[in-house]
Amino acid sequence: MPENKEYSFFQSVEKSFDKAAKFTTWESGILQQIKECNSIYSMRFPVKMDDGRIEVIEAYRVQHSQHKSPCKGGIRYSMAVNQDEVMALAALMTYKCAIVNVPFGGAKGGIKISPRSLSAYELEKITRRYTSELVKKNFIGPGIDVPAPDYGTGEREMAWIVDTYQSLKPGEIDAAGCVTGKPISLGGVRGRKEATGLGVFYGVREVCLMEDVMKKLGLAVGVENKTVIVQGLGNVGYYTAKFFREGGAKVIAIAEYEGAIYCKDGLDEEEVFQHRKATGTILNFPGATNIENSGEALEMECDILIPAALENVIDNNNAPRVKAKIIGEAANGPLTPDADEIFAANGILVIPDMYLNAGGVTVSYFEWLKNLSHVRYGRLEKRFTENANINILNQIEELTGKKITDAEKEIIAHGPDEIDLVHSGLEETMINATREIMDIWKANPSIPDMRTAAYVSAINKVGTSYAELGIFP
Ligand code: GLU
Fold first, then answer.
1. Quick check: is 247 in a domain?
2. In which domain, by residue range, is 33 found?
3. Using an 8 Å Cβ cutoff, are 97 and 171 in contact?
4. Based on the domain organization, do 140 and 17 belong to the same domain?
5. Residue 181 and residue 147: Cα distance in Å, rounded?
6. Interatomic CA distance for residues 159 and 165, integer angstroms
7. 149 CA: nearest ligand 1 atom
């Protein structure tokens, strides 16, 4: 077993990067430039809380790379936020965007607060002040840096951000593109909310459809009937569980910080969610067994384990006890580098975070494009496509003398709505990225794991951009 070393999150990312860099031919200067965080904005500002107290808020925005503009990445609200964490997450965004061919540099923001213990009014004040600090230093804008939701933030916070930005930049025609993950009424795109979970599902499904990979793991091809354990029932975990269940898999356990529940016949995420909302805990769900120590759920027998909460939940202590055959990293950085090595040695396939959870940023890209084009997806072509399809169906009926039922006609003629285009764009993106990474891995069998192959893909793409920018002639 590898020795127990403590790495900061950013050092873990650097370690994974260095491991992959050996399989590329870039000169060390380019590798160094790719690795570094280009701009780090650490800020403090006062906010008057509801009880009259003044609190000094600690917040960050890190732009890891500007090899493409704008930079892109979410903003998280959590007491665990610190500069190292935001740097690591910003770096992962650069690699993530490169792997899925989304033309952005990587960035990340964080505010060190506990959103659950603040009122909506306090959160609004903090969010708006944070946004104006970003505007002051030119750290936000549709062509500069575009934040999005992350742990502890969602549509509501994005609405406050776009509103603050627009009020400070009157007349900026593309202002709606200064942030993504907005409510639809403020320029959001349909499908953004479930995007990360759906992307996780598409990515894992594509791997499960690879015969050679499944054979090596001793698993049947396809996601149907596979047993899945999901850690975290936030936005990402909820939708990941939903799409696996709808895809024919069985979600046998769901873990949250207060405990976990197990049911061998499978759990319905919506019922579990409602139960937790009503009772304040995931435990005591009818028909399921309680697991008081939530961490134990990670170590149970299953085909696919999905950590969908925070970083560093599997390290060299618990990794040897993990029995899953596939680990799909829905969260950012849930495994330490030591855990990676243990899984590689034990023949467990780790599908890495910075590509598997790229569904969020991919659909953010679609939202940003929608904001710049000022038109909803499908608006121009939906009716035209429908009419063309109906004409074809009518011709078929006439030529064959047979009738197609109205229900069938409706399905076949259907012109694409925004949600159809977003989901199919995401599916295409995830399938292509999975294949690209697997091809790199297959072409070089000395690459030890899929994460390293994903990093090689990212390094080659970012390296090519830098080289083509002429920065390193
Ligand atoms: N916070 C998400 C992530 O870590 C989404 C970022 C975005 O949409 O820009 O990928």
1. yes
2. 9-188+460-469
3. no
4. yes
5. 9
6. 10
7. 1
Catalytic residue numbers read 108
Most ligand 1 atoms within 8 A of CB, residue of 361, 370, 426 to mutate: 361
Residues 223 and 108 in one domain: no
Q: Which two tokens stand for residue 55?
A: 């609190």
**How close is the Cα of 2 to the center of ligand 1, in Å?**
32
Q: Are residues 179 and 302 in the same domain?
A: no
CA 363 to ligand 1: nearest atom: 8
Tokens (6 digits) for 8:
């900061």
Same domain, 181 and 199: no
Q: Is the pTM of this model over 0.85?
A: yes
Rounded to the nearest 10 degrees, how much is the dihedral formed by the CA atoms of 407, 408, 409, 410? 50
The residue among 335, 356, 377 that closes a domain is: 356
Is the CB of 329 within 6 Å of ligand 1? Answer: no
**pLDDT (tens digit, 0 to 9) for every residue of the chain, 473 residues total?**
344 457 898 998 999 999 999 999 999 999 999 999 999 999 999 999 999 999 999 999 999 999 999 999 999 999 999 999 999 999 999 999 999 999 999 999 999 999 999 999 999 999 999 999 999 999 999 999 999 999 999 999 999 999 999 999 999 999 999 999 999 999 999 999 999 999 999 999 999 999 999 999 999 999 999 999 999 999 999 999 999 999 999 999 999 999 999 999 999 999 999 999 999 999 999 999 999 999 999 999 999 999 998 888 999 999 999 999 999 999 988 999 899 999 999 999 999 998 999 999 999 999 999 999 999 999 999 999 999 999 999 999 999 999 999 999 999 999 999 999 999 999 999 999 999 999 999 999 999 999 999 999 999 999 999 888 776 54
- Of ligand 1's listed atoms, the one at least distance from the Cα of 104 is 9
- Identify whether residues 61 and 83 lie together within a single domain: yes
Q: What distance in Å separates the CA atoms of residue 113 and residue 79, rounded to the nearest whole number?
A: 5
| Cα–Cα distance measured from residue 76 to residue 90, given in angstroms and rounded to the nearest whole number | 12
Which residue from 389, 421, 213, 231 is spatially nearest to 308, judged by alpha carbons? 231
